[in-house]
Amino acid sequence: MPRASGPLAETLARRPVLLDGGLSNQLAAQGCDLSGGMWTGRVLDERPEQVEAAHTAYARAGAEVLITASYQIGYGTPAAGSRDRARTTALLHRSVTLAARAAEAAGHEVWVAASVGPYGAVLADGSEYRGRYGLSVARLAEFHRPRIEALLAAGPDVLAVETLPDPDEAEAVLTVLAETEAPAWLSYTVAGGRTRSGHALPGAFALAAGSPQVIAVGVNCCDPEDVLPALGAAAAVTGKPLLAYPNDGSVWDAPTATWAPPPGTPAAWPVAAWQRAGARLLGGCCRIGPDRVAALGRELRGLG
Fold first, then answer.
1. In terms of Cα–Cα distance, which of 6, 261, 7, 2 is closest to 159?
2. Is the pTM of this model over 0.85?
3. Which CATH topology does 8-303 take?
4. Which partner for 245 in 48, 55, 66, 283 could form a disulfide, CB atoms 3.0-4.6 Å apart?
């Protein structure tokens, strides 16, 4: 079966689409070592068969979009270590190839989304949860351009521009996307009704309103409680399909490289409300595994 029979944007116009879950937690569950600056990129480099196995686990759980292991792979950054440019390009290409293999082996349609993580992710210091890097929009565009070009050369179905903390970085990526014809989604990480850099959500989402390349906007890697207000802000200013793939409410502690679990018993996700707000791409981020994705898929089918 081909991994998908048509553009993702066309399907979003007809029905919701189920995303996968957290790649890092699934790799850890498979016994992989994610220590060091490259995180999931380390497994992509050293044990690529495990990355494919993780994608396969999500496809078997019903995921219709597999997000690649390219989140922390970039050129000339601390996380890249001593790897030269050619090696970095090869890893970016490999990330798409592995997801495509898992997609092609699935028993249903699956799209491949090439992860374009934020600048802060490749610094491997948790700064994607702070933003405000002190870099100009032009400098951020220079950072993102070669990795986007490399990912597109590998042939994904869509770019997943994800976990952006700062509208300046969104503006930079949108500048690069305007040089291509590639479809992409754009997703902020948010907290308390603002982007992680502290910017108001309506203005942050409005940047994508006029971009023909952006097929959906929304949030990821955030507390589930922050999803609905963000979707409302995005719907009010973009008119585009929305997306949501939160984590389980845990908070990332960069100095210890650990997740602090949410207090108390997490509430059930208000998926029906997210759909009513316009969410068409729904899934999970960090600490959301195949079982949770499968349950979300059943819920989406039940909602019709």
1. 7
2. yes
3. TIM Barrel (3.20.20)
4. 283
